[in-house]
Design a protein that fits this description.
Blueprint: E1 16-21, H1 28-41, E2 46-49, H2 67-78, E3 82-85, H3 95-109, E4 115-116, H4 136-144, H5 165-171, E5 174-180, H6 185-188, E6 204-211, H7 214-220, H8 223-231, E7 235-240, H9 254-264, H10 273-284, H11 293-320
Parallel strand pairs: 1-2, 1-7, 2-3, 4-5, 5-6, 6-7
Helix pairs in contact: 1-9, 4-11
The structure holds zinc ion.
């Protein structure tokens, strides 16, 4: 499979930009202002949802069980945004609830979710925790994350009560994996969307660029970094949690709005994540998207390096923070 380095964007646009927004903390109050801004600026991105409320979930927010939230999300889809699943609920779901979520999603939105994103702490995640990696890199990851809560993911373990990998393979096209602090996602992962034969229940994987909360967005999405993305004619798939401080209390962060306005002014191709990934597949003209073992090893190493760099920088920032 040839990597997508020289891709052409529809309408001869200079670059492509989209967002996969994990629904952690999201409520109509704290994300509607973000989506109103995106819509006004011409962005059409992807928002994930939870179908069900649950107990013991990490970073809970509103779900499709809330009438007001549900109708707002449906209206968002009608404006051209893509809706996708972030697991069935914020807490762990067994097979029965995962399948009910897929069906409920189809009933509500009229189509299967094209995308699934694993949510932190859900034990029915697919190939999560150290199973994200292969070979010696798995051991490195384990030692890097020592002391941190370890997640044992079982969604891909056939026969387990949490197994739903078969349904994912049948109904879901794309699953998000590695996240980098660089904006040009295609440069970090030129093979995407790719198939990893060691992970047969996921059809195709994609990567993204870290804007997990407002502070991370402001740190990574500088004006210089945005200019670089455009000059590289790249693709940025932002990984975000818009519930994570972008419009706290319903008040849109001014600097976030400034930077999004700047990106919109660059005239890129602004389409939802699955539309962009479908385009990448089409350009390659190949049904087979198998990643070569060397390319996968290199991608995993790049991610480990990037993650280590980010963790060290975080420690330095913490050490330099003035003490009260
Ligand atoms: Zn999440």
């Amino acid at each position: 499979m040839m990597p997508n380095l020289q891709i052409r964007w529809p309408g001869n646009r200079p670059f492509a930009f989209t967002v996969i927004d994990d629904t952690d903390w999201a409520t109509v109050q704290n994300v509607k202002p973000v989506y109103d801004l995106l819509a006004d600026l011409g962005f059409r991105t992807t928002k994930t949802v939870w179908m069900f409320q649950s107990e013991n979930g990490i970073n809970p927010g509103e779900t499709c069980e809330d009438a007001e939230y549900r109708s707002w999300v449906v209206a968002l889809q009608n404006r051209g945004f893509e809706i996708a699943l972030h697991n069935a609920a914020a807490g762990t779901s067994d097979r029965v609830r995962s399948l009910r979520a897929l069906d409920g999603f189809r009933d509500l939105f009229g189509n299967d979710t094209a995308i699934h994103c694993n949510h932190t702490g859900c034990l029915e995640n697919l190939y999560w925790g150290d199973t994200r990696l292969s070979g010696w890199r798995r051991g490195v990851y384990r030692s890097l994350t020592r002391g941190v809560r370890t997640e044992i993911s079982r969604g891909h373990v056939a026969g387990d009560p949490l197994f739903w990998g078969d349904a994912c393979r049948e109904r879901v096209r794309y699953v998000r994996n590695f996240v980098f602090d660089q904006l040009n996602t295609l440069k970090m992962c030129p093979e995407m969307p790719y198939y990893d034969p060691a992970k047969p229940y996921v059809n195709l994987w994609f990567a993204s660029a870290d804007a997990g909360n407002l502070a991370t967005f402001l740190r990574n999405f500088t004006y210089a970094a945005i200019d670089r993305l455009v000059s590289e004619r790249g693709l940025c798939i932002v990984y975000s949690h818009f519930g994570g401080g972008f419009a706290p209390g319903g008040h849109l962060d001014r600097e976030f709005a400034n930077r999004m306005t700047y990106i919109a002014g660059k005239g890129g191709w602004f389409a939802p994540v699955s539309t962009v990934l479908d385009h990448l597949r089409g350009e390659a003209g190949a049904d087979e998207r198998i990643i070569a073992p060397a390319a996968l090893a290199s991608l995993e190493s790049r991610w480990l390096q990037n993650r280590t760099k980010v963790e060290v920088a975080k420690k330095v920032r913490r050490a330099l923070r003035p003490r009260k």
